[in-house]
Amino acid sequence: MPLVEVERLTKVFPLASRGWKGRAGEVVAVHEVAFTLMRGESLAIVGESGSGKTTIARMLVGLERPTSGAIRFQGNDRSTPAPKSAERRRRGREIQIVFQDPYSSLDPRQRVVDALDETLRLHFRQSPAERRRRVSDLLDQVALGMRERQSLPRRLSGGQRQRVAIARALATEPSVLVLDEAVSALDVSIQAQILNLLADIQHATGIAYIVISHDLAVVRHLTQSALVMYRGSVVERGATDEVMREPDHPYTKLLLDSVPRGGWRPQFRTSSESVDSGCLFRPRCPDAHDACGEAPPLVSCGARASRCWLVHPPRPASREPALTEISSSREPPPKSPS
Amino acid sequence: MSVALLELHNLAVDLPVGRELRSVLADVSLTLGAGEMVGLVGESGSGKSMTARAVAGLLPRGASVRGQITFDGTQLTGLGADAMRRLRVSDIAMVFQDPRAHINPVRRIGDYLCESMRINLGYDRRRAERVGLELLERVGLMEPERRMAQYPHELSGGMLQRVMIAAALAVEPRMLLADEPTTALDVTVQAEILAILDQMRRERGLATLFITHDLELAAAVCDRICVMYAGRIVEEQAAERLYRHPRHPYSAALIESRPRLDLPLDRLAAIPGVPVSAHEAPPGCPFRPRCTFGQDACEKWTPEIGLEQERVACLRANELFPATVGDRRG
Q1: Closest chain A residue to B268 measured between Cα atoms?
Q2: In chain B, where the domains are located
Q3: What is the pTM of this model?
Q4: Residue A241: strand, helix, or coil
Q5: What is the Cα–Cα distance from A284 to A273, expressed in whole angstroms?
Q6: What is the Cα Rg of chain B in Å?
Q7: Contact status of B289 with chain A (Cβ, < 8 Å)
Q8: Which residue from B312, B230, B245 is spatially nearest to A189, judged by alpha carbons?
Q9: Counting CB atoms within 10 angstroms of each CB, which of A287, B16, B30, B106 has the fewest?
C-alpha cells in the first residue's frame, strides 16, 4: 500500500471582491492533482511561482483545506480538518514540513533545545530525562554544534537554523517530510551541507521526502520521481532523471532550457498574456497550434505521463491500450470522431 | 582591451558598528569596460553588494573608504553628494534583487517610470510618457499603455523587474550595477531578464557589473568573473575558463558543491564551516579554515592578488591548479 495517496486534489481560492475590472472571481490554484508516494521514496514537485506547488505542500500538512479531492495517509483520509487535538497531533506524526525561510519558522524567544523539547512533550509521554536524551540524539543527527544547542535562533546562521528546523520536524518521527524550498535561501556551500544531511537522514531512517523546488539540479539530486506543474495542473510526470534528460512537455523543455550553462544564450521573449481555457501553457508554447484551444488530458504511458497534444495527438491513436486517460481536463475533453 | 570605464584600485571599506569600524572590503581592484559584463560572485558577507554600493556612492553614513574608484577618468571617492547624484542620474544605473521593495507601491507604473525623466532630463509629460511606452516595449512588456496605468501589486515580480530595468535605462546610462537582479525570479523569467541585459550591452555598449551568488549563471552570461570571499577578490578569470578551470580552492569548491544536471549523481563535496565576512576573517588567507589544501604557511601569508585579468590569491595555486592559458588548456 502506498504511504500517501493523493487523488483529484483541487484548491480554489476566492478572489477578493475587487478582481480585475471589478469582477469577483476565483483562482484555481491546484486542479485535480494525483500522485502516490511509497515508503522511503522521494518525489519532486517542480514548477514556477503560481504553479500550485506550495499550495499542495500546505494541503498535505493540513495548513490549507482542499476544495475537493482526497489526501490519504496509509489509507486514512486527512483532507478534512481534524476535530480533536489528539487527531491533529496524530496527523503531525505522519507528515512534517520544513519551510524555505529558517529566519521566520523558529520562535525567536525559544532556545533550540527548548523548541525540540516542547515538540516532544506535545507528542510523546516521556520523562524529562528521556526527552533530553532524544533532543540530544536529534541534534546529533543534524550535526548541530554543542554551543548552538543552547542558543536563541538569532545567534544561529541560516544553515544552522535550517538544521534546527529539520531536527524539529524529525522529532515527531514522521514517515514523510515535505521540504518546501528548504535549501533555496541558503548559501551555495551551506546548501550542499544540508543536501548531504538530508540524504544521510533518508538513508538512516527510510523517511520519504516530498521536495518542492524550482531548482532542477537540487531536485535531480534528491528525488527519484517528479511532477512538473503549470498553473495548478500536472503537465508531466516520470522518473526525475528521465524527465530531465528527455522532457516530453514543451513547458518542461522551457524550464530546462532556462537553466544557465556554458554557451547559453538566453532568449528574448515578450511577456505573454495568460489564457483561462484550452491548454494553459499555449501562449508561451513555441509549438502551439490549433488543437491547443482544447485542453489536453494528462495521458500516461507507463510511469511517464504528459499533458500535451503534440506528445499525445488528439487522434483515435490515443485510445490505444497502452495509453490510459488518467485525469480529466478542466474543459470537457475534445470530442473525437467515433 | 579598450580603456576601462570603471576602475577600482585597492578599494577598502570599513563600516561603523557601534563604536568600532568593521572591515567589509579589503584590497578590491577590478576594471569594467564599455560593453563588458563582469560578474562579482560570492556568498553572504563576501562584499559583492558592498562593492556595488561603494561605486554608486550609496554606502551607509560613517563609512570609511580607502583606495580609488574611477569612472570614465573621474575620481568618485571624495566626490560631493550632489556630483555623485548627478552621475547616478546620467551615467550609472542600478537594478536590485527585489523590485517590489524599490518601487513605490501607491503610485502607478507610469508615474514611477516618467518621474525621473521629467525631473532629471527635463521632459514634459507627453514626451516622458512616449519614451516610457517605448522603454516598456523594449523590455518586452505586453500592452504598455495598460501597464502604465497599473499599480505595482497588479504586476508579477518578473514584470516589475522589467519595469525597474526600463526605468534604469530611461536615462541612457553607460554603466549598470545589477545586484542579484534575477535571484527572486523563476528560471524562465531569469532567462528573459538576462536576454534583455545582454541585448542592452550589445546594442548600446552598456557596461554591466553583475552581482550574483550563482557561479553557473555568471559563467553563462559574463565575460569575466571575479570570485569574492571575506571582502576580497580571490580569483579573476575569463568566465567560462574560471568555471572549467578554477584556480582558487574556494572557486573550485563552490563549483563542486553545486548539484549538476549533467553529471552522475554523487554525494556533494560540501565546503565545511560557514562563509565569513572581512571583519571575521582569520589572519592569513581568509579561506584557510575551510580549505582542503590549507597549510601552516597559509596562516602567515598576507593575501595578495595582482591587477591582471587572470589572477588568483592563493599561495598554492600554481602547484594545485596550474594556469591553463588559452590553447595550453588540457
Answers
A1: A192
A2: 1-91+173-330
A3: 0.88
A4: helix
A5: 9
A6: 21
A7: no
A8: B230
A9: B106
CB of B195 closer than 8 Å to CB of B210: no
Helices (H), chain B: 48-56, 81-90, 99-102, 109-120, 125-138, 144-148, 157-169, 187-204, 215-221, 239-244, 249-257, 296-300, 317-320
Grid cell 478534512 is found at: A80
Question: Is the pLDDT confidence value at B325 over 90?
Answer: no
- Mean of the per-residue pLDDT values of chain B: 91
Which residue(s) pair with A76 in the sheet? A73
Mean pLDDT value of segment B153-170: 89
pLDDT digits (tens, 9 = 90+) for B132-145: 999 998 888 888 99
Q: What is the DSSP string of B107-163?
A: S-HHHHHHHHHHHHS---HHHHHHHHHHHHHHTT-S-HHHHHTS-GGGS-HHHHHHH
Please tell me the distance in Å from A264's CA to the nearest CA on chain B: 6
Mark out chain A residues that contact chain B at CB-CB < 8 A: 20, 48-49, 157-159, 187-193, 195-196, 199, 214, 216-218, 220-221, 244, 254-273
- Enumerate the residues of chain B whose CB falls inside 8 A of the CB of residue A218: 259
Per residue in B218-275, pLDDT (tens digit) is 999 999 999 999 999 999 999 999 999 999 999 999 999 999 888 877 889 999 988 9
In A, minimum Cα distance to B137 occurs at A270
**Minimum mean pLDDT range among A101-105, A253-257, B12-16, B283-287:** A101-105
Superfamily name with CATH number, domain B1-91+173-330:
P-loop containing nucleotide triphosphate hydrolases (3.40.50.300)
Q: Specify whether the CB–CB gap between A198 and A205 falls below 8 A.
A: no
- The CA distance from B141 to B150, in Å, is 13
φ, ψ of residue B101 to 5 degrees: the values are -80, -10
Q: Between chain A and chain B, how many beta carbons pairs sit less than 8 Å apart?
A: 133
H or E, element range at A7 = strand A4-14
The nearest CA of chain A is from the CA of B229 a distance in Å of 12
Verify whether the Cβ–Cβ distance A272 to B142 is below 8 Å. yes
pLDDT tens-digit readout, B84-122: 988 888 899 999 888 888 889 999 999 999 988 898 888
B205 touches chain A (CB under 8 A): no
Q: Model confidence over B177-228: pLDDT tens digits?
A: 999 998 888 888 899 889 989 988 998 999 999 999 999 999 999 999 999 9
Q: What's the CA gap between A97 and A61, in Å, rounded?
A: 7
User: Does B270 sit within 8 Å of A196, measured CB to CB?
Assistant: yes
Q: What share of chain A is helix, strand, coil (3-state, %, to 5)?
A: 35, 20, 45
Residues of B in contact with A187 (CB under 8 A): 43-44, 213, 274-275
Output the pLDDT for position B1. Answer: 46
The residue type found at B77 is T
Sheet holding B175-179, edge to edge: B92-95, B175-179, B207-212, B37-41, B224-229, B232-238, B311-312
Nearest CA in chain A to B187: A258
Among B221, B267, B274, beta carbon nearest to A190: B274
C-alpha pair distances (Å), B306 with each of A202, B26, B52, B313, B328: 46, 13, 20, 8, 22
Characterize the bridge pairing of strands A304-306 and A95-98: unpaired
Give the C-alpha distances (Å, rounded to integers) separating A16 from A23, A25, A273, B149, B152. 9, 8, 21, 21, 17
What pLDDT is stored for residue A22 in this prediction?
53
The mean pLDDT value of chain A amounts to 88
For A43-80, what is each residue's pLDDT tens digit?
999 999 889 999 999 999 999 999 999 999 999 999 99
